[in-house]
Specification:
Number of strands: 15
Helix content: 40-55%
Structural class: alpha/beta
Distance between the termini: 49 Å
Radius of gyration: 27 Å
Largest sheet: 9 strands, mixed
Strand content: 5-15%
Number of helices: 20
């Protein structure tokens, strides 16, 4: 028996265990190769160190084994394999994200990627090792090259993960298509089910949950949970959550690339489309705002001739898309001269909002626990859909009052120590951030903002973070900025608007920011957490 295969398996299994963070990056980027390589560049040190540590461990282990006994036996191979596997596990544990916003999940797809990687990488090393004489000695240049390749093999781990992901892609595509078609068949069989699609650059999840709460006053409604907004995420919901009693299905549709919404519509075939917002989000993948607009409008294009389109009036891009749409449509906002549904007599307080929901035919007095103008606009948009689906004014008002603050989206969290916390930590955008700052401005006492700024804005990132800082200066007394490099643009915006330099604190992590808060915050103060970076961002 050739026991060298034990060493090869030890190398491969150790590498895969050590490279847990790389597979996590791949998962966070929805197994998209451009996103994976961008993440590697942003986190270069964390990406290369696991493989480098495995390379050092392999070299040291082999050298110690040879030094202990020049005569190689099966005991050496077993011992070396065990050390490499154990070492790989420790390296993977050391470099994995401890407080990840989205934790690494050992999904069936990840398990298949591990299996493919084990087979592919083992075959590569087996082919190379055929040129190595296990009895020792370096007789040929080819043998020296083969040994050198085996020794540096772990250092190439980021590339091996990409290669194995590429080789696993046809398998995943086939499996995904089977599940996808099954979900399509389920929806096609439900002639009684009203299908609603929601998309936008921001606010999709908030609108989805607001709409679901209001519609539940009349219809049994299934809303895709959390941020399930990819074809496979929505497919899973359809196959596992859709019940015969559901009368409405609401699907959030996310997009990072042109054609993503079109693919979602191929699954859901919505008859109602809701466009929440359009703006410069994910420009690192879309590249231009024009591509963002085109992709978001794919939802409206996919509606049938008798479908209905609903738009949030942003007095900008969405309004323009509303005006060009020839299908049945409604628009909701704060302009009584243009919108089909609008709000009047709005008042805000730390307890929430009160307003008159108004149409040309009626006026409904509404109360909501949600904070800020942006949430009022979202409620109006959802109410326009509810009116179209036959809910009474009383049902709509009752549903609005039942809406609870959505986690990490302008969520007011009272603190036992007398401090108020506004959690707006979900991915930020300039419009939403300005709304959050206006909400903070309504609070008394000292106002503190903790933020890393905004990301995934491509070439406009510095400019927009400077604007972010300018908007921030008007609403807070103390700014705690997370990330020394990223905070430069925000600091420039703050200082340009006359913000006191000694009230700007720059920290390297959220943990450091929390520690600083404990030192400076007092009862009655309000702290706004504005945005939180994705797991795959670091300095």
């Amino acid at each position: 028996m050739n026991f060298s295969i034990l060493l090869i398996l030890g190398i491969v299994m150790g590498c895969l265990l050590a490279g847990k963070i790389l597979i996590h990056y791949f998962q966070l980027e929805s197994y998209q190769f451009p996103g994976y390589f961008r993440t590697l560049r942003r986190n270069l040190l964390k990406a290369v160190l696991p493989g480098f540590c495995m390379m050092v461990l392999l070299i040291v282990t082999v050298m110690l084994s040879i030094a202990a006994s020049p005569q190689i036996s099966w005991v050496h191979y077993v011992f070396d394999a065990a050390i490499l596997i154990a070492g790989g596990w420790l390296i993977g544990r050391s470099f994995s994200e401890k407080n990840a916003k989205k934790a690494f999940v050992l999904t069936p797809r990840v398990k298949r990627l591990y299996a493919v990687s084990l087979v592919v990488l083992t075959l590569i090393l087996l082919l190379v090792s055929r040129r190595i004489d296990p009895s020792g000695g370096l007789e040929t240049t080819g043998e020296k090259a083969a040994i050198g390749f085996v020794m540096i093999f772990p250092a190439l781990l980021p590339l091996w993960i990409a290669l194995c992901g590429l080789l696993a892609w046809p398998i995943e595509k086939g499996i995904s298509e089977l599940y996808f078609r099954d979900a399509q068949k389920i929806l096609k069989s439900r002639k009684d089910l009203i299908r609603i699609g929601i998309t936008g650059s921001w606010g999709k999840t908030s609108v989805k949950f607001i709409l679901g709460t209001i519609l539940e006053e009349k219809y049994h409604t299934l809303v895709t949970p959390a941020s399930f907004n990819t074809p496979m995420g929505v497919t899973k919901v359809i196959r596992s959550k859709l019940e015969p009693g559901h009368r409405i299905f609401v699907a959030e549709m996310g997009a990072r690339h042109v054609g993503d919404i079109k693919e979602m519509c191929r699954l859901v075939h919505p008859e109602i489309g809701i466009l929440v917002s359009v703006g410069p989000q994910h420009l690192d993948t879309f590249k231009t705002l024009e591509w963002v607009i085109q992709t978001k409008y794919e939802l409206i294009d996919a509606l049938p001739a008798d479908g209905q389109a609903f738009f949030a009036d942003d007095e900008d891009i969405c309004r323009g898309l509303y005006e060009k749409t020839g299908k049945a449509k409604m628009i909701a906002g704060l302009d009584p001269d243009f919108d089909d549904i609008w709000a009047e007599n709005i008042t805000y307080s730390p307890e929430g909002s009160v307003f008159d929901l108004t149409t040309k035919d009626q006026k409904i007095r509404c109360r909501s626990q949600l904070l800020g103008e942006l949430n009022i606009r979202n409620i109006l948009l959802c109410s326009s859909v509810a009116l179209k689906l036959g809910l009474t004014p009383e049902q709509i008002a009752r549903g609005i009052e039942k809406i609870r603050p959505i986690e990490h989206r302008l969520q007011l969290i009272p603190n036992p120590g007398g401090m108020s916390v506004i959690d707006d930590a979900f991915n930020s955008n300039i419009r939403g951030a300005k709304q959050a700052f206006q909400v903070l401005k309504a609070f008394p006492e000292k106002r503190i903002v903790v933020t890393p700024g905004m990301v995934e804005l491509g070439e406009k990132e510095y400019e927009m973070n400077r604007e972010f800082g300018q908007a921030m200066a008007d609403c807070c007394d103390t700014a705690i900025l997370v990330g020394k490099k990223r905070s430069q643009a925000i600091r420039e915006g703050l200082r340009g608007d006359g913000f006191a330099e000694n009230n700007i604190h720059v920290v390297s992590s959220l943990n450091e920011a929390t520690g600083l808060l404990r030192q400076i915050v007092k009862p009655g103060d309000t702290v706004l957490f504005e945005n939180d970076l994705p797991d795959n961002y670091s300095e």
